[in-house]
Amino acid sequence: MFRFLHSHYHAFVQGLIRIKANWIGSVMMFLVIGITLSLPATGFLLIQNASQISNKIQYEAEISLFLSKDIPSEQINFIRSALEKNTLIKKIHFEPKLDAWEKLQAQLKLSSIEDGVSKNPLPDAFFISLNTLETKKITTFIADLKTIEGIEEIVIDGGWVKKLRSILYLVKIGIIILGCLLLTVLIVVISNTIRLQTLTYQNEIEVSRLIGATNAFIQRPFKYTGLLYGFGGGVITLGIIKIILASFNLVAHRVENLMGGNITLKAFSLEQSILIIVIAMIVGWIASYIAAKQAIHKLEKNY
Description:
Strand content: 5-15%
Structural class: alpha+beta
Number of strands: 4
Strand order of the largest sheet: 2-3-1-4
Distance between the termini: 33 Å
Mean pLDDT: 77
Low-confidence stretches: none
Protein backbone atom coordinates (compact mmCIF):
# COMPACT_ATOMS: atom_id res chain seq x y z
CA MET A 1 0.00 0.00 0.00
CA PHE A 2 2.82 2.36 0.90
CA ARG A 3 4.57 1.60 -2.38
CA PHE A 4 1.34 2.32 -4.29
CA LEU A 5 0.83 5.68 -2.55
CA HIS A 6 4.49 6.60 -2.94
CA SER A 7 4.30 5.82 -6.67
CA HIS A 8 1.30 8.11 -7.13
CA TYR A 9 2.88 10.83 -5.00
CA HIS A 10 6.04 10.64 -7.11
CA ALA A 11 3.96 10.86 -10.31
CA PHE A 12 2.04 13.85 -8.92
CA VAL A 13 5.29 15.67 -8.10
CA GLN A 14 6.60 14.92 -11.59
CA GLY A 15 3.42 16.40 -13.04
CA LEU A 16 3.93 19.58 -11.01
CA ILE A 17 7.55 19.80 -12.12
CA ARG A 18 6.58 19.46 -15.78
CA ILE A 19 3.95 22.19 -15.45
CA LYS A 20 6.44 24.45 -13.68
CA ALA A 21 9.13 23.75 -16.27
CA ASN A 22 6.82 25.06 -19.02
CA TRP A 23 4.80 27.51 -16.95
CA ILE A 24 3.98 29.82 -19.87
CA GLY A 25 2.47 26.96 -21.87
CA SER A 26 0.73 25.70 -18.73
CA VAL A 27 -0.87 29.09 -18.05
CA MET A 28 -2.05 29.21 -21.66
CA MET A 29 -3.55 25.73 -21.24
CA PHE A 30 -5.32 26.86 -18.05
CA LEU A 31 -6.79 29.82 -19.93
CA VAL A 32 -7.88 27.69 -22.90
CA ILE A 33 -9.66 25.21 -20.63
CA GLY A 34 -11.14 27.95 -18.43
CA ILE A 35 -12.50 30.06 -21.28
CA THR A 36 -13.85 27.04 -23.16
CA LEU A 37 -15.67 25.65 -20.11
CA SER A 38 -17.00 29.08 -19.13
CA LEU A 39 -19.22 29.18 -22.24
CA PRO A 40 -21.53 26.24 -21.35
CA ALA A 41 -21.16 26.96 -17.61
CA THR A 42 -22.44 30.52 -18.07
CA GLY A 43 -25.30 29.21 -20.19
CA PHE A 44 -26.31 26.77 -17.46
CA LEU A 45 -26.10 29.55 -14.88
CA LEU A 46 -28.47 31.74 -16.89
CA ILE A 47 -30.89 28.82 -17.42
CA GLN A 48 -30.75 28.03 -13.70
CA ASN A 49 -31.64 31.60 -12.74
CA ALA A 50 -34.39 31.80 -15.38
CA SER A 51 -35.86 28.48 -14.17
CA GLN A 52 -35.98 29.76 -10.58
CA ILE A 53 -37.84 32.87 -11.73
CA SER A 54 -40.33 30.82 -13.77
CA ASN A 55 -40.96 28.48 -10.82
CA LYS A 56 -41.69 31.48 -8.59
CA ILE A 57 -44.14 32.89 -11.14
CA GLN A 58 -45.82 29.52 -11.52
CA TYR A 59 -46.78 29.51 -7.83
CA GLU A 60 -48.56 32.82 -8.30
CA ALA A 61 -50.65 31.57 -11.26
CA GLU A 62 -54.35 31.19 -10.61
CA ILE A 63 -57.19 28.97 -11.71
CA SER A 64 -60.37 30.91 -12.34
CA LEU A 65 -63.72 29.17 -11.79
CA PHE A 66 -66.67 30.99 -13.38
CA LEU A 67 -70.02 29.81 -12.02
CA SER A 68 -73.39 29.54 -13.69
CA LYS A 69 -75.39 32.77 -13.70
CA ASP A 70 -78.41 31.23 -11.99
CA ILE A 71 -76.50 29.20 -9.41
CA PRO A 72 -78.16 29.21 -5.95
CA SER A 73 -76.24 30.45 -2.91
CA GLU A 74 -76.36 26.96 -1.36
CA GLN A 75 -74.38 25.55 -4.28
CA ILE A 76 -71.86 28.40 -4.02
CA ASN A 77 -71.34 27.53 -0.35
CA PHE A 78 -70.94 23.87 -1.29
CA ILE A 79 -68.27 24.71 -3.86
CA ARG A 80 -66.49 26.97 -1.36
CA SER A 81 -66.51 24.20 1.25
CA ALA A 82 -65.18 21.65 -1.26
CA LEU A 83 -62.36 23.98 -2.26
CA GLU A 84 -61.40 24.73 1.34
CA LYS A 85 -61.05 21.02 2.07
CA ASN A 86 -58.73 20.41 -0.90
CA THR A 87 -55.07 20.21 0.20
CA LEU A 88 -53.76 21.34 -3.21
CA ILE A 89 -55.26 24.81 -2.82
CA LYS A 90 -53.06 27.51 -1.34
CA LYS A 91 -55.43 30.48 -1.48
CA ILE A 92 -59.12 31.05 -2.33
CA HIS A 93 -60.77 34.31 -3.32
CA PHE A 94 -64.51 34.57 -4.10
CA GLU A 95 -65.65 37.43 -6.31
CA PRO A 96 -69.47 37.95 -6.27
CA LYS A 97 -70.91 38.99 -9.60
CA LEU A 98 -72.29 42.23 -8.14
CA ASP A 99 -68.84 43.30 -6.92
CA ALA A 100 -67.29 42.35 -10.24
CA TRP A 101 -69.94 44.36 -12.11
CA GLU A 102 -69.38 47.43 -9.95
CA LYS A 103 -65.61 47.24 -10.43
CA LEU A 104 -66.06 46.91 -14.20
CA GLN A 105 -68.38 49.93 -14.34
CA ALA A 106 -65.96 51.97 -12.25
CA GLN A 107 -63.01 51.05 -14.45
CA LEU A 108 -64.86 51.76 -17.71
CA LYS A 109 -66.74 54.72 -16.25
CA LEU A 110 -70.05 53.41 -17.59
CA SER A 111 -73.56 53.15 -16.25
CA SER A 112 -76.11 50.46 -17.02
CA ILE A 113 -78.56 52.97 -18.48
CA GLU A 114 -76.01 54.73 -20.70
CA ASP A 115 -74.56 51.45 -21.92
CA GLY A 116 -77.93 49.88 -22.52
CA VAL A 117 -77.23 46.95 -20.18
CA SER A 118 -80.10 46.31 -17.78
CA LYS A 119 -78.75 43.10 -16.21
CA ASN A 120 -75.38 42.15 -14.80
CA PRO A 121 -73.69 39.94 -17.46
CA LEU A 122 -70.85 38.81 -15.18
CA PRO A 123 -70.94 35.51 -13.23
CA ASP A 124 -69.80 34.73 -9.71
CA ALA A 125 -66.22 33.47 -9.68
CA PHE A 126 -63.64 31.75 -7.51
CA PHE A 127 -59.95 32.55 -7.99
CA ILE A 128 -57.69 29.90 -6.47
CA SER A 129 -53.92 29.42 -6.22
CA LEU A 130 -52.35 25.96 -5.97
CA ASN A 131 -49.37 24.91 -3.88
CA THR A 132 -48.04 22.34 -6.35
CA LEU A 133 -46.42 22.32 -9.78
CA GLU A 134 -47.00 18.65 -10.56
CA THR A 135 -48.87 18.42 -13.86
CA LYS A 136 -50.53 15.11 -12.97
CA LYS A 137 -52.02 16.45 -9.74
CA ILE A 138 -53.23 19.64 -11.43
CA THR A 139 -54.83 17.67 -14.28
CA THR A 140 -56.65 15.41 -11.80
CA PHE A 141 -57.78 18.46 -9.82
CA ILE A 142 -59.20 20.13 -12.93
CA ALA A 143 -61.03 16.93 -13.86
CA ASP A 144 -62.63 16.80 -10.39
CA LEU A 145 -63.72 20.44 -10.68
CA LYS A 146 -65.51 19.72 -13.96
CA THR A 147 -67.74 17.19 -12.18
CA ILE A 148 -69.05 19.79 -9.72
CA GLU A 149 -72.43 21.21 -10.64
CA GLY A 150 -72.55 24.98 -11.03
CA ILE A 151 -69.04 25.46 -12.41
CA GLU A 152 -69.57 26.65 -15.96
CA GLU A 153 -66.02 27.53 -17.08
CA ILE A 154 -62.47 26.83 -15.83
CA VAL A 155 -59.63 29.09 -16.95
CA ILE A 156 -56.05 28.10 -16.12
CA ASP A 157 -53.81 31.14 -15.97
CA GLY A 158 -50.03 31.02 -16.28
CA GLY A 159 -49.97 28.86 -19.40
CA TRP A 160 -47.26 31.09 -20.79
CA VAL A 161 -45.03 30.02 -17.89
CA LYS A 162 -45.22 26.41 -19.08
CA LYS A 163 -44.20 27.57 -22.54
CA LEU A 164 -41.31 29.50 -21.01
CA ARG A 165 -40.14 26.43 -19.10
CA SER A 166 -40.38 24.34 -22.28
CA ILE A 167 -38.22 26.88 -24.10
CA LEU A 168 -35.73 26.85 -21.23
CA TYR A 169 -35.61 23.06 -21.41
CA LEU A 170 -34.85 23.16 -25.13
CA VAL A 171 -32.15 25.78 -24.55
CA LYS A 172 -30.68 23.56 -21.82
CA ILE A 173 -30.51 20.63 -24.26
CA GLY A 174 -28.77 22.90 -26.77
CA ILE A 175 -26.24 23.98 -24.12
CA ILE A 176 -25.57 20.33 -23.22
CA ILE A 177 -24.84 19.56 -26.87
CA LEU A 178 -22.60 22.63 -27.10
CA GLY A 179 -20.86 21.60 -23.90
CA CYS A 180 -20.19 18.10 -25.23
CA LEU A 181 -18.69 19.55 -28.42
CA LEU A 182 -16.48 21.94 -26.44
CA LEU A 183 -15.35 19.12 -24.13
CA THR A 184 -14.38 17.11 -27.21
CA VAL A 185 -12.35 20.08 -28.45
CA LEU A 186 -10.65 20.30 -25.04
CA ILE A 187 -9.76 16.62 -25.13
CA VAL A 188 -8.12 17.10 -28.53
CA VAL A 189 -6.21 20.20 -27.39
CA ILE A 190 -4.97 18.65 -24.14
CA SER A 191 -4.10 15.40 -25.96
CA ASN A 192 -1.90 17.28 -28.42
CA THR A 193 -0.15 19.08 -25.56
CA ILE A 194 0.49 15.83 -23.67
CA ARG A 195 1.65 14.16 -26.89
CA LEU A 196 4.23 16.92 -27.34
CA GLN A 197 5.36 16.32 -23.76
CA THR A 198 5.89 12.63 -24.49
CA LEU A 199 8.22 13.64 -27.31
CA THR A 200 10.09 15.96 -24.95
CA TYR A 201 10.48 13.19 -22.37
CA GLN A 202 11.07 10.44 -24.93
CA ASN A 203 14.53 9.62 -23.60
CA GLU A 204 13.20 9.38 -20.06
CA ILE A 205 10.43 7.04 -21.25
CA GLU A 206 12.92 4.82 -23.04
CA VAL A 207 15.17 4.58 -19.97
CA SER A 208 12.14 3.75 -17.81
CA ARG A 209 11.20 0.94 -20.18
CA LEU A 210 14.76 -0.43 -20.11
CA ILE A 211 14.71 -0.73 -16.32
CA GLY A 212 11.39 -2.59 -16.44
CA ALA A 213 8.81 0.16 -15.81
CA THR A 214 5.27 -0.75 -16.80
CA ASN A 215 3.18 1.32 -19.20
CA ALA A 216 0.91 2.35 -16.31
CA PHE A 217 3.93 3.67 -14.38
CA ILE A 218 5.17 5.65 -17.39
CA GLN A 219 1.71 7.07 -18.14
CA ARG A 220 1.02 8.12 -14.54
CA PRO A 221 2.94 11.45 -14.52
CA PHE A 222 1.23 12.46 -17.77
CA LYS A 223 -2.16 11.62 -16.26
CA TYR A 224 -1.46 13.81 -13.26
CA THR A 225 -0.32 16.57 -15.60
CA GLY A 226 -3.70 16.34 -17.33
CA LEU A 227 -5.48 16.39 -13.96
CA LEU A 228 -3.56 19.52 -12.95
CA TYR A 229 -4.40 21.15 -16.28
CA GLY A 230 -8.06 20.41 -15.61
CA PHE A 231 -7.88 21.70 -12.05
CA GLY A 232 -6.28 24.97 -13.12
CA GLY A 233 -8.76 25.35 -15.99
CA GLY A 234 -11.70 24.68 -13.66
CA VAL A 235 -10.50 27.38 -11.25
CA ILE A 236 -10.14 29.81 -14.17
CA THR A 237 -13.71 28.93 -15.25
CA LEU A 238 -15.10 29.78 -11.81
CA GLY A 239 -13.12 33.02 -11.83
CA ILE A 240 -14.52 34.03 -15.23
CA ILE A 241 -18.08 33.23 -14.11
CA LYS A 242 -17.57 35.26 -10.93
CA ILE A 243 -16.39 38.25 -12.97
CA ILE A 244 -19.39 37.91 -15.33
CA LEU A 245 -21.82 37.73 -12.38
CA ALA A 246 -20.26 40.71 -10.62
CA SER A 247 -20.37 42.80 -13.82
CA PHE A 248 -23.97 41.85 -14.62
CA ASN A 249 -25.26 42.41 -11.09
CA LEU A 250 -23.49 45.78 -10.91
CA VAL A 251 -25.22 46.94 -14.10
CA ALA A 252 -28.52 45.37 -12.97
CA HIS A 253 -28.32 47.25 -9.67
CA ARG A 254 -28.02 50.54 -11.53
CA VAL A 255 -31.00 49.63 -13.71
CA GLU A 256 -33.01 48.76 -10.60
CA ASN A 257 -32.47 52.27 -9.23
CA LEU A 258 -33.96 53.70 -12.42
CA MET A 259 -36.74 51.23 -13.18
CA GLY A 260 -37.33 49.40 -9.92
CA GLY A 261 -37.56 45.65 -9.48
CA ASN A 262 -35.02 43.08 -8.45
CA ILE A 263 -32.73 41.58 -11.10
CA THR A 264 -29.86 39.63 -9.55
CA LEU A 265 -28.15 36.53 -10.88
CA LYS A 266 -27.29 33.91 -8.26
CA ALA A 267 -23.94 32.12 -8.43
CA PHE A 268 -23.40 28.37 -8.54
CA SER A 269 -23.63 26.54 -5.25
CA LEU A 270 -20.49 25.06 -3.66
CA GLU A 271 -21.44 21.60 -4.92
CA GLN A 272 -21.91 22.88 -8.47
CA SER A 273 -18.59 24.74 -8.35
CA ILE A 274 -16.80 21.59 -7.21
CA LEU A 275 -18.56 19.67 -9.99
CA ILE A 276 -17.20 22.10 -12.62
CA ILE A 277 -13.65 21.55 -11.35
CA VAL A 278 -14.15 17.78 -11.23
CA ILE A 279 -15.46 17.74 -14.82
CA ALA A 280 -12.44 19.77 -15.97
CA MET A 281 -10.09 17.36 -14.17
CA ILE A 282 -11.83 14.33 -15.70
CA VAL A 283 -11.49 15.85 -19.17
CA GLY A 284 -7.80 16.49 -18.52
CA TRP A 285 -7.28 12.93 -17.27
CA ILE A 286 -9.06 11.37 -20.27
CA ALA A 287 -7.10 13.49 -22.72
CA SER A 288 -3.75 12.72 -21.07
CA TYR A 289 -4.57 9.02 -20.84
CA ILE A 290 -5.39 8.82 -24.55
CA ALA A 291 -2.32 10.83 -25.58
CA ALA A 292 0.14 8.97 -23.34
CA LYS A 293 -1.20 5.56 -24.34
CA GLN A 294 -0.95 6.36 -28.05
CA ALA A 295 2.55 7.81 -27.68
CA ILE A 296 3.86 4.81 -25.73
CA HIS A 297 2.22 2.42 -28.18
CA LYS A 298 3.96 4.25 -31.02
CA LEU A 299 7.32 3.94 -29.24
CA GLU A 300 6.74 0.22 -28.78
CA LYS A 301 6.27 -0.17 -32.52
CA ASN A 302 9.49 1.70 -33.23
CA TYR A 303 11.44 -0.53 -30.91
